[in-house]
Amino acid sequence: MGKQARVLVPATTANLGAGFDCMGMALELYNCFDFQLGSNEFSVTGEGQQELESDRGQLVYRAWDAAHAYRSRSAPSVKLHIESRIPIGRGLGSSATAVIAGLYAANHLGGLCLSTAELLSLATMIEGHPDNIAPALLGGLVVTAKEDNHSEVDYLVLDSCEELQVILAVPRFELSTSKARSVLPEKVPYKDAVFNVGRAALFIAAWTKKRWEVLGKAMADRLHQPFRAALVPGLEEVLTAAVEAGAVGAALSGAGPSVVALTIGNADEVGKVMQQAFIDHGIECEIIETRPAIKGAHLAG
Q: Reduced to 3 states, what is the DSSP secondary structure of residue 202?
C-alpha cells in the first residue's frame, strides 16, 4: 500500500457584504479528501456526486500537478476519494477546497516543503482570487490583498469569534462564479466605492472589538449584491428577514446563490425565516447551521 493522507478542507463564505474579493471566513463544514500514492483511481460520495464523478477531480489533480511542477518534479500517480459535504456551485467555496486539498496533499506526501505563502500563491493562480482560497487554507476570518497580474498575496488572519453562529440558506440551484461576475459593471460611481471601503474597514474594526450592532451595518454593499440580486430571486427579502429575526447581519455568500447570516442565538428562527423568504419566491432551499472555523486545511487524525 502506498503512502496515504486524509485531508480536511473547510467551506468558506466570501465577501461578507462589503469585503468584495478581499475577505472570507472558514466554516465548520469540511470536505474530506483521501489520497493514496500508486494508482489513478477516483471515487466520490456525498454532495454533487454525479457532477463530481463526471469532473473526476480535475481541480484536485491540477493542483496536485502544479505543486510538484513548482519544485520541478513529476507528479506521481495518486488514488483519490472525495467525501463531499459542501454544496457545489452555491457560493460556499467548494472549488477552493479541491484546489487546497491537491496542494496540501502534494506538499505532505511529496515532501515538497512549500511554505504557507507559496501554497497560497499557487492556489490563487489556479483559483483566480484569494477570498475563498485563503480561509480554506488558513482557517478563521482572512483579509487578503493581491496586485493585478501578480500571484503574491498579502493576508492577515483574524481570530474566529466562538459566540457567533453562521446560518446558511442554500437554494436548490447552482450559480457559476463566471455567470455571477458577468452581471457586474466595469465601472461604479465614486461614492459607491467610498461606501464599500468604509463598510469593509468598519467590519474589521467591529469584528475585532466584537461590536455586533455595528458589524451588521458594515455588511451593506454596493459593488456586487445589487447587481447579482437579479440572479437570486428573493435575495433582498431573505437578507431583511434574517436581520428582522435577530441576526447580527446577512449577506450573499460569495458569488451566491447562498445567503449567509451571522447571529448570536435565534439560530433556528433566523433559519426558518430565511427559508420561508426563499419559498415565497418559489425557491426551495436547505438551511445549514454552523460556526466560524478556527482550522483551515489539515490532516485528519
A: helix
